[in-house]
Design a protein that fits this description.
The chain contains five helices and no strands. The protein is mainly alpha-helical and 115 residues long. It has one domain. Helix 1 packs across helix 2, helix 2 packs parallel to helix 4 and helix 3 runs parallel beside helix 5.
Length: 115
Amino acid sequence: MSRGLAWKLTAGAGDLYAETNWVSLVFASCSGSGTDGPSLREGLHRDKLHNARSVLADYRRHKENVWLRFSAGKKEQFWYYGELVRVFTQRRPEDPLVTEFARVAKELKDLDQAG
């Protein structure tokens, strides 16, 4: 990711955050509201995929304790990932980033349910 794109992601998120809560911020940014084009949306999709992969790796290592680092609980986190999958697939169902994000979110939920 270029420095310019990273700056836009940070600056855009900061502007949106001043006006709304974090859940609204994420869904607005992922749906394209408040962004300036496809490259910014792709950067946001990549960021969410990276975050989900990190949580999955941490879950494998720390199990249930991974949820302690979030202000929202496990149930809310799974709702959040599910909603991101829904929004992403509505907008770009054939996008490999979206497919991979959905796979990672499902794997995380499956691991959690398996105990």
